[in-house]
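Fig. S4 source data, part A: sequence.
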Amino acid sequence: MTNEETETIEETESIDETEILLVEDNPTDAELTMRALKRKNLINKLVWVKDGAEALDFLFAKGEYSNRNVEDLPKLILLDLRMPKVDGLEVLHEIKADERTRKIPVVILTSSKEDRDIVESYKLGVNSYVSKPVEFDEFIDAVSTMGFYWILINKPPSEVPHGTD
């Protein structure tokens, strides 16, 4: 692993214990998001990836993440829309199209307030769409509240073993 890759996952003890996958190409926005989550003690098991291609590699245990257990999925994905390599809408499409990942809550966290982005995100199955507030305090409050809800309050569906309907 390169130094940059190590920095990407330094907040978590093991990438197989990830609770939050942060997909954000802007280092400033990523730092603010992590700071907000830290306020609610939700950053211990966070992995930050810097583009959509890396997010898909992480989720499906490919490329530099091929040694990761593909069964250990995050409890929440915070996803930016405007990113290099693979944009957020394509990442969302891939997540919701795959049986293994479709139940993971995905929150779009973006600066875009365009109706077409909002409509397309919901068509693809996003769980929530949040426009990044411009003011620092508003951003911190929005992200910490959102993280608290999705990680600690929200009750995801439990897996039903095959053949026990």
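Fig. S4 source data, part B ends here. The beta strands are 20-23, 46-49, 76-79, 106-110, 128-131.
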